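Observation: inputs received (chain + nicotinamide-adenine-dinucleotide).
Thought: call the complex predictor directly.
Action: predict_structure
Action Input:
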Amino acid sequence: MIVRSRSEPAPDLAERLDRLARLRSVVADNEERFRQAITADFGHRSAVETTIAEIMLVFSEIRHATKHLKTWMTPQRVATALQFLPARNRLMPQPLGVVGIIAPWNYALQLTLAPAIGAIAAGNRVIIKPSELVPHFAALLKEAVGEKFDAAEVLVTGVEDEIATGFASLPFDHLMFTGSARVGRLVAEAAGRNLTPVTLELGGKSPAIIDASADLDEAAERIAYGKLLNAGQTCIAPDYVLVPERSLQAFAEKVRAQMRRMFGTDPSNEDYTSIVSDRHYARLEGLVADAAQRGAKILQPAKPDDPNWKAHRKFPPTLILGATEAMAVMQEEIFGPVLPVLGTRDAAEAIAFVNARDRPLALYWFGKERSARDEVLARTVSGGVTINDCLFHFTQINQPMGGVGASGSGVYHGEWGFRTFSKLKPVFYRSKFNRLADLYPPYGGKIARLEKLMRLMS
Ligand code: NAD
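Observation:
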C-alpha cells in the first residue's frame, strides 16, 4: 500500500468521489446488519442511538465532503509580499499517502468511518483497526469494506490479525487514534519512532457548569440526555456537574426525574443501552461503591448488582452527591451513566475547579447571564463547548472536533479532516518580471537601495 501510494500519489476528484460513494454504500447496504452487530457487541445498543449517533453522522459527513470536495482540492490563493510581485503563491493540498486509523468501541461505526471520510477525501489510502471489544462489528466492517474496496484503497484489519497488534508501529504517513489517554501515550510513542504524525482524539472528565442564572429544569433535562445517551459511554458526555450550592439538592432531583422520564426504571427498556463488557460494568460498580464508602450519597433506581439490571449489563442511572476529590469517581473519566453533582460557592470557584484539572474534551455551560458565560469561555480551555445544551458542538460539521492537552491534539470533521489528512504545500511561482536576481552578488551599491526599500516596507 505504501509503495502504491508513492507511485500513484494523487487520485483525482472523480476517483475520490467514487470512493466516498462506495463508502456510503458500505453503510447503506448493511444498515440493519450494522445495528445488529453493534447490539450483539454491547449486549444491547439502542437501535435509535446507532442510527442517529453513528449511521446518520457518517452519511452527513459523506454528503458534506462530496459537496465540497472540489473546492477543498483547489489550490488556494495566498497573498504575495510586495517585493516579490507579480509572482504568485498557492497553497496546494496533497494526499499524505497511507493513513492508519485506530478506533475505540463506543461509537464503533462513526469513529472508524468519520476519520476515514476525511482521509479518503484528501486522497489517501486508509487502513482501519477497529476495537477488539466490538468483534461482531469489526468482522462486518471488514467484510463490507472488502466487498467495495481494493485492499490497496481501504483495508480493515481483523481484531486478532497480526497487523492489528503492531499497528501503531507501522510507518504510516499519518496515524489517527481515538481512545483513552493511557493508550494514546503508547500510540504516540510508537508513532514517534517513525516520525509519523498523530492525531489524538482522547477523553477525560468533561464538566457541566450550571450558572446561578440557569433554568434548572431545562439544564436538568439536557444533562440527563447528554449523560445517558449510549449509557454514558460517550467521550464528550458531561462527566460531572458543578451547580450553585443552594440549588444542589433541587437540581439533582430534577436530573433524577428527567432520567426516569426518558429511560424509565425498567432495565429491559429498548432505548437504554447496555455497558459494553463485564469489566466495564464492574469498574462502574467499583466507582460507585468507593464513593459510597467514602461518604457520598448515592441516588439510583436499583442497585447495580440487581440481577434484573446486571443480567442485561444495564447500569442503573446513578447520581452521586457529596463527591470529593479523594473519590475515584472524581479522579478518572467515568464513561458510564454515573453523574457526580457537586456544589460550588460561586462562578469563580467553578472555573478554578475546572482549571485545576486536565484540559477537558468538552465543557458545558448553562445559564442566561452573558457576562458569566463569557467569563467561563475566556478563562477555561477545552476541546469544544456547547452553551445551554450538551454534545451538540460535536455535530456541527463546519466546526473542528478535537481535544487539547490531555484530551488530545489535532482535529477532524468536514474540511478540518480534509486538511488534517492533507499536506498543505506552499508553492511560490516566481515572476520573470521581478528583479530578485538583483540580490545576487556582487552586492555593490544596488543592494543598499534594495535594503532601503525593504526597511521601508517592514
Ligand atoms: P482504548 O484506548 O482502550 O482503545 C482504543 C483503541 O486502541 C482500540 O482499538 C484498542 O484495540 C487500541 N489499542 C489498545 N492498546 C493499543 C496499543 N498498545 N497500541 C495500539 N492500539 C492499541 O479506548 P476505548 O476503551 O476503546 O475507548 C474509550 C476511550 O476513548 C475513552 O477515554 C473515551 O473518552 C475515548 N474516546 C474519545 C473520543 C474522541 O473523539 N475524542 C471518542 C470516543 C472515545
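Thought: report the result.
Final Answer: The chain has two domains: 2-202+406-425, 207-402. The mean pLDDT is 95.
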